[in-house]
Each structure stands twice: as C-alpha cells, then as structure tokens.
Specification:
The structure holds two protein chains of two kinds. By secondary structure, chain A is α/β, with parallel strands linked by helices. Chain A has 15 helices and twelve strands. Chain B is mostly helical. Chain B is 45% helix and 10% strand. Chain B is built from three helices and two strands, in the order H-H-E-E-H. In chain B, helix 1 runs antiparallel to helix 2, helix 1 runs antiparallel to helix 3 and helix 2 packs parallel to helix 3. Classes of the chains: A alpha/beta, B mainly alpha. Chains A and B meet through helix 5, helix 6, helix 7, helix 8 and helix 9 of A and helix 3 of B.
Chain lengths: 402, 121
C-alpha cells in the first residue's frame, strides 16, 4: 500500500474578526509546503492538491498548479497530484491544462498524477457559467481531448460541444509517456465503476469503510480487465481511499488535537453546499458557537446515530467524525491493515484542516511516517503481485505509479 | 457486489445484461433508455429503495443540511430527471443523446438500485 496527503488549504476566518488577517492565507500556504517537504523526506508517496473556487474557508487551493510547482522544487521523490483539475472548458481550457500538466511534469522530473473532475458546487460552476446538467459531458470531452493533446503531434484539432480549436501542436509534451497517470474524483460508487470502464484511476473521496472499499476494489478490477475503450492512451488501474488522519503518541492526545479539525471539515463542507454570502460569512465562528452550545453534548450523542443512507450525505457525515485514522500509531496501524487486506492501492490523508496546529500536523506526519508506514511499504511488493494477477490479460498500455 | 448476474429476477437481469451489452457496442442512448425504464419499474414495485436525499433533520453540529441536490433518488444532472407524482415515478429525458460516461453512470446506479430492490423484497 502507498500513502499520500491531500490538501485543501483550509483557512478558517479568525473567530473574532470579519475577515482574515494579512498573512493568514500566506501562513497556510507556506506551512503546507513545509509539511510536504517533511512528507517527501519521510517517504510518503503522494501529495495531491484540490482545485476549488470561491469556497471561502473550505478550500483556498484555487491554483494548485502554482503550489505544486513550488512543491516540485522543494522535493525529490514524492509524486505531485492534482486532486483534481476541474475540466469543464469554461473553467480550464483543455489546452491550458495540457500545457500546465506537461510543464509540471518536466519541472518535477516526471512525478505528476493527473487527477480530473467535473466540478460540483453551484458556487463554482455558477461562477464560471457552467450548467450542472453539462458538467459530466464537459468532463468527458475535455479530459479525452486534453490527453490527446499531450501525445499527438500535431493535435489535429477538435469541434466539440464545449470547446473547439484548430490543429496545433500543444507543447511542451510531458516527460511521462504517453501522458501522466490519469484519475477521476469519485465520491460515489458509480463513478468508481465509471473510472474502471474508462481505464483510469479513482480517487475515492467518499471516506469508504474497509468493507465498502473491498467491494469496490474487486468490482473495479473486474471492470478494468473488461475495459475496451480507455479514455486515454494508457490506463491507470488504481484506487485511492481518502480519510482524515492525525497521529499522536496516545489516542487521547490525537483526538484532542485532531477532532475539532475534522468536525470543522464536515461543517464547512456542508456549508459549501448551501447558500453562501460571499465575502461575509464567518463559518468558523458559526462552527465554534455551535460546538460550544449548551446542547452540544446531546448533539455529539446524536452524531453517532445511524449514518445517512444517501451516499453523498454519508460522506459529509463521516468527514466530521474521528474515523479510523485519528489516534496513536497502534490504533491507526490496525485500521490501515484493514484497508491493506481490502487491497486498496493507496490511502490519501487529509491532515491540514480547520484550526489544527501546524506543529501537531508535522508531529503527526513524523509519527505516522516512522512508526506506521514502514511495514506497509515493506509489504507493498505483495500488493503489486496481487495487482499483477488482477491485470493479467489487459492488452492496453499501463502507466501507473502504484 | 453489484454485477448484472447478481440480480436474481430474470426479467430485470436480462434488461441489465442488454444495457451492459449496449455499452460494449457504444450504444449509449440504448443503455440509458433501458435503465431508465428499469429504474422506474424498480421504484413502482419497491418504492422503499428510494434513497432519501438528506437526513430529515439537520446533522448534529453541522448546522444545516446541504441544499445542493447531490443525487437525491436519482442522478438528475446528466439528462434524465426523476420525480414522484401521486406516488408514481415520472422520468423525463431533457436531452436526446448521451455520452459514454453518462450511460455508464446511469447503468451502474440502476444496477445498484436493482440489488437494493432484491434486499428490500
């Protein structure tokens, strides 16, 4: 199994102010780079950056290509992933995506992971005049053509529903041939299976349990073997599962340091799906006030009630709880083993969230990296042997970092 | 694990197998029409399979339930809408042609619904 970090660059507003201080965003950006540099030295395999727009406090990573380039310069081996690029051409033109991905791949020495997505919130899609009804079709068109731009000489041009362009040679070309490994954001089961049928990796943003993950893994690889029409020129058979992680010497310390950040994550994510008062909400204050309300004990008890049935609402629910990776190395190790047994290719951790302290995140990365991760990396060759069995008979070229 | 052959009802299984075969033939519209009809039949026969879009009350500590219709009882953002009218499902096509990813998504969603309907009966 491999391990990575996922960054949103969450930047809560100060509780007692109406907007951020002059250096609040800068601090989060530069602390993230320090965390990535440490992760690289410790042997973490991936760092992924989200792309969201206009989602205040929830995600200030609106130009991930910039921070990934900074990370490339400060690291040696960690792979640099877009988790994800928003593909509707009204947001990002496919040629510009191809140029940026290829440039980052060159700068990083061939370490890019090309995660794609269709966009989700009405705040973002509406901000770029993308209709909800069009986003999946736009994603498919743009991703397919963007990949063609990376490996065809010249790109013959295209007349499409969401973009058109004449013949051009899109340059530079990426170091990884024919293109970097391709992924799609998959918060729902049907999207994981879509990824398999298209021969691309699935970044599982659904906070799946080990049981859910195992079920998806088996079906995913079955569909990979049956894939006859990959979206790109090479397949990337791979499944990531995401989770919130905070490691400390004891379970109690980990929960004390980490739970509030996870709860805020769930809270602010839910907020993003509702009405937003741009430039005027203080979501962190709203969150803290609710947390400290008189009925918070009752609320916390109620929070362990049955999970919502709807898959998307269930993700929201799980996002804000302790989960399986907030604890001591012993606690976390036992749970990682469950995902290893489920044959998940990699775990991707959200660690920077809410008001978590940078020092606590750094200590967490160090503890996990030195006391949990090594045994799984030592056994990764066994997982690769299992994967080789799963991929027997696949006729298409494979470009995968797993 | 959801595969068409896991569906025990022979009529439903046959529809899903035809829908999956249409995917292999790149007949995306055929797949979508087949699974839309099947989903409506599933809901008519087992309305309990409809997934509530969100909890009926706000999630604790989260303040408010997301307004955004993520998927509700059916993914509505890919060209087929769903509504319950007088207790019966109404599904309408808002476009004529579908893409590969839309057809696959609708197929997989309906397949899982068919498995849920089995568990419900």
């Amino acid at each position: 199994m491999k391990f990575g970090l996922q960054f949103q660059l969450q930047t809560p507003r100060p509780y007692d102010q109406e907007t951020w201080g002059e250096y609040d965003e800068s601090k989060i950006f530069h602390q993230a780079l320090e965390q990535i540099e440490l992760a690289d030295k410790l042997g973490y395999d991936y760092v992924f950056f989200t792309e969201h727009h206009f989602l205040e406090e929830y995600c200030h990573s609106s130009a991930p290509e910039v921070i990934l380039a900074a990370a490339a310069a400060r690291t040696k081996q960690i792979r640099l992933g877009h988790g994800i690029v928003q593909m509707p051409p009204s947001i990002n033109h496919p040629a510009r995506i191809a140029e940026r991905i290829s440039s980052l791949d060159i700068i990083s020495g061939g370490r890019v992971e090309f995660g794609t997505g269709e966009g989700a919130t009405s705040a973002e899609l509406g901000g770029f005049n993308v209709a909800q009804a069009d986003k999946k079709e736009a994603w498919e068109e743009a991703t397919r053509e963007c990949l063609r731009m990376m490996h065809t000489v010249p790109y013959p041009g295209y007349e499409g529903k969401f973009f058109s362009m004449p013949e051009r040679n899109v340059i530079p070309k990426p170091m990884q041939k024919p293109h970097p490994p391709v992924w799609v954001a998959a918060s729902r089961r049907e999207t994981v299976m879509l990824a398999a049928r298209l021969g691309i990796g699935a970044i599982g943003f659904g906070f799946e349990t080990p049981e859910e993950a195992e079920e998806r893994v088996l079906r995913y690889y079955e569909l990979i073997r049956a894939c006859r029409r990959p979206l790109g020129a090479a397949m990337n058979p791979a499944l990531l599962t995401t989770a919130n992680m905070l490691c400390a010497k004891t379970d109690e310390e980990a929960v004390a340091r980490g739970l509030s950040g996870a709860q805020y994550f769930g809270f602010v994510f839910g907020w993003m799906a509702g009405h937003l008062n741009y430039g005027r909400d203080n979501i962190y204050r709203e969150f803290r006030d609710r947390l400290e309300a008189e009925d918070s004990a009752e609320a916390k008890d109620a929070a362990v009630a049955l999970e919502p049935e709807d898959e998307s609402a269930r993700t929201l629910y799980r996002m804000g709880r302790r989960g399986l990776f907030m604890g001591s190395p012993e606690f976390i190790r036992e749970n990682v083993r469950q995902y290893e047994e489920a044959h998940v290719d990699a775990l991707l951790f959200f660690s920077q969230c809410g008001d978590r302290r940078h020092e606590d995140i750094m200590e967490s990365l160090e503890l996990f990296g030195t006391e949990v991760m090594p045994e799984f990396k030592e056994r990764h060759h066994l997982h690769q042997a299992w994967r080789k069995e799963q991929l027997a008979g696949v006729e298409f070229e494979i470009n995968s970092s797993i | 694990m959801a595969r068409p052959r896991d569906v025990t009802d022979p009529v439903r299984r046959e529809v899903l197998e035809r829908a999956e075969a249409a995917l292999d033939l790149e007949e995306w519209d055929t797949t979508v029409h087949l699974v839309v009809d099947l989903y409506a039949e599933l809901v008519r026969s087992a309305p309990e399979i409809l997934i509530a879009s969100s909890p009926s009350e706000p999630l604790p500590l989260y303040g408010r339930v997301p307004d955004r219709a993520m998927h509700r009882p059916w993914p509505t953002t890919m060209g087929v809408t769903f509504a319950m009218t007088d207790g019966a499902p109404t599904m309408e096509f808002t476009k004529e042609h579908f893409t590969m990813s839309e057809a696959i998504s609708y197929f997989e969603y309906t397949l899982e619904a068919a498995i849920r309907a089995q568990s419900a009966s």
